[in-house]
Each structure stands twice: as C-alpha cells, then as structure tokens.
Amino acid sequence: MRRFYSMALATSLFGECGGVRQWGRIGTSGQTRTDWYTALPEAEIALQALLRAKRRRGYTS
Questions:
Q1: Which end of the chain is more exposed for a tag (fewer CB within 10 A), N or C?
Q2: What are phi and psi of 45, to 5 degrees?
Q3: Which intervals hold domain WGR (predicted)?
C-alpha cells in the first residue's frame, strides 16, 4: 500500500500559526488536519517532532 504524508506551516488572518498535515493513499485526496498554535516557534517545534516520528516509521522526504 503506497501512502503519502505532507506537512506545512500556515498562518491565519488573526496571527495564529497552524501546522497543516495531509495524508492518505497515493491517488486520493486524503485527509487534512490543522493544529493551531499561538506562536510560530511552537508550531515549528510540533511539526519537527511529527517529522521525526514519521521518519522513524519509514516515511521519506
């Protein structure tokens, strides 16, 4: 089963920072989740932790 996982940082109109994640099977639109944080460094740290966890499970960049 071939899967994909993508992550990006986004900002809202109100200054909040979000970590946008999208995942699913290749060939589908997949699912999307956005986790909101109050500051950009907080969002970056959270996404870096997720990236390390995904790489341990076999995902590549």
A1: N
A2: -65, -45
A3: 1-61
pTM recorded for the entire structure: 0.78
d(CA 60, CA 21): 15
The residues pairing with 24 across neighbouring beta strands, listed in sequence order, are 4
Where do the structural domains in the chain lie, given as residue ranges?
3-56
- Residue pair 9/46 in contact (Cβ under 8 Å)? The answer is no
Q: Is 47 exposed, middle or buried (0-12, 13-18, 19+ CB in 10 A)?
A: buried
Give the pLDDT of residue 1. 72
46 pLDDT more than 90: yes
